[in-house]
Structures are given as C-alpha cells and as structure tokens.
Amino acid sequence: MFKKYHIVIFKDREGGSRNLRIRGWLGLSFFLLLFGLAGLCVFLWGFYTRSGVLEAELEEAHKIIRSHDSQVVSLLGKLRSLEQDLSRVRQFDSKLRVLMNVDKDPADASAEAEAEAAAAEGTPVAAPGMEGSRPILFSRHRELFLMRLHSLVDDLAGNVRTEEVDQQTLAGLLLENKDSLLSTPSIWPAKGFVTSGFGRRRAPLAGGTTMHKGLDISNRVGTPIRSPARGAVTFSGPDGAYGICIIVDHGNGIATRYGHLQKTLVKPGDYVQRGDVIGALGNTGRSTGPHLHYEVILNGTPVNPMRYILN
C-alpha cells in the first residue's frame, strides 16, 4: 500500500504520454482528506438546519415575552392608578375624621403605616430592558418583578378591604353627627389660586420669616366669598392689617376669618348657611394684590384650613 504508484496520462492527438509517480501514503492521505471534508459538510449542513429551527423558536419565544411584558406593564399602570385612588380615599378619610373629631384606632394606624412602608419597599419598578416601545424583561429580573407585582396586589387588596370598613364606620358617624358636619367649614370660600399656604413663610412686605395663619386665594376683585359652613357672623368691618374683614362663629370652638375684602354683605348677628355669599374679594388692608386671606380658628388657635376642605 505504501509503495510507489505510477499514473500514465496518454495524449491521443499528439501520441505522447506523461508519467506521474505518487507514493502510497500520499494517496491515502488525499482520500482520507476528501472523506473528512465530506463528513464535515454533512455535519455542518445538519447544524445549519438545526440552527434555523432554533432561530425560529427563539423568535417565537421573543414574541411571547414581548406580549407578556406589554400585559405586565399595562397591569402595573393600572395598579399604580389604583394606588393613587386609594391614597385619595385615605386623605378623604383623614379629613372626615378631622371634621367628625374621630381618631383612627392606634392599632389600625400602626398596621396601615407598616403596610404603606412594605408597599413602598416592594413597589415595582421598570426592570432593565423595559425602555423603549418594545420592552423585553430579562429572565433574571422577571421573577423578582412579578413577585413585587403580586405583593403589591395583595397589599392593595388588603388596604381596600380595610378602607371599606373604615368608610362604613364613618358613614354611620356622619349620620349621627349631621348637625355638627353642617357647622364644619368643609368647602372652598372662594374660587381662585392658592398663592400662599398655611405655615411659616417669608413676609412679603416686612421681610424675614413669619407665621402665615391661613390661606391666600388670589382672584379678581369682586369674586364672591361664600361661607363654608353655617354659623353666626360675629364681626364685619375694618380690622387693621386684615382690611375689611368678616368673622363667622360656627360653634364647637370653630370660627373662620375672611380678610382683605372689597366689601361685606353681612353684619354681626346674621346667621348664614353653607354656600351663602357673605362678601367680595378685594385688596384692602396690608395686601400685595387682590386676594382672600382665609383662616380656620379652632378654640382660639389658627389651624391649617386644608384639613377641613373636602371639595
């Protein structure tokens, strides 16, 4: 097998020939090489066909993942909206309790605070890969994301049940204390924009900081001022820095003051109902522009009017 081999090539037209000498091992190597190349081609063709199938399956998997991610993102948006609605319900609940002078059970308040803290820690956030119009969640983030999402759903469901019970309790108290609620300043006294809230602020005229005892509501001169609850007018007229001013006593230690008016439409001793027009917004007294200075006074101490306003 490993001897020398001669290959003779004859040329018909010329009548000559050519002699090639090949060693045996070289011929064997050549045939083995051809056989190996053929096997390699068969293997690569099989790999190519399998890769095409895998690529199609991978594309289908990506489509499913994108569809699931879209549903998850949509659900997350709805849950966040539900959480905001629940927050508004809680704020309304707090205001009603202030109006009714009802405190939340300390145990319930503590449990609610813990639930809110847990929800804050577990609030789902967009996982890497969710940016853009075609979000794709990587598998290692998906499990944690879905766990947080389910946790948020459970927390919200529990909080909603708790709020339902609280609202039913408050509804019963409202029926029992209807007269008290009618005397509580629970609506805006005027339309406009709040330009200064309750609390410490920089004094607009004197400079430095001072305590602002109410709300400043800016609007055009002549805007109607309405009583936020029923009560008796105890003062109506000029009052130093307040300008033209009205004070209404609503009973139960609650009174309201309206300053910088253009004019008053009531006099001391008048009895007003919620929504009655009692004056007009102006720019009298120590004022930097047309606005209403509105105070709520509880047992002689100014408190934040926003605690009482429901609408």
Structure, described:
The chain has 311 residues and is an alpha+beta fold. The protein has three domains: 4-60; 64-182; 193-307, Distorted Sandwich (Glucose Permease (Domain IIA)), CATH 2.70.70.10. 44% of the residues lie in helices and 25% in strands. The chain has helices at residues 24-100, 106-121, 139-176, 178-182, and strands spanning 4-10, 17-23, 193-196, 199-202, 209-212, 215-218, 224-226, 231-238, 244-251, 254-264, 271-272, 277-281, 291-298, 301-303. A hairpin with a 6-residue loop joins strand 4 and strand 5 (209-212). The protein starts with a strand and ends in an 8-residue tail after the last strand. Mean pLDDT is 76; it is low at 117-138.
In a few lines, what is going on in this structure?
The protein has helices at residues 24-100, 106-121, 139-176, 178-182, and strands at residues 4-10, 17-23, 193-196, 199-202, 209-212, 215-218, 224-226, 231-238, 244-251, 254-264, 271-272, 277-281, 291-298, 301-303.
List low-confidence stretches: 117-138
Shape by Cα distribution: rod-shaped
- The protein's oligomeric status is single chain
Total of DSSP H or I helical runs spanning 4+ residues: 4
Largest sheet descriptor? 10 strands, antiparallel
Count of individual beta strands: 14
Spatial separation of the terminal alpha carbons: 106 Å
Mean pLDDT metric = 76
- Helix-residue proportion: 40-55%
Q: Kindly provide the radius of gyration, computed on alpha-carbon positions and rounded to a whole number of angstroms.
A: 42 Å
* Strand-residue proportion: 25-35%
Tally of discrete structural domains: 3
Topology pattern, helix = H, strand = E: EEHHHHEEEEEEEEEEEE
Query: Helices and strands: which structural class?
Result: alpha+beta
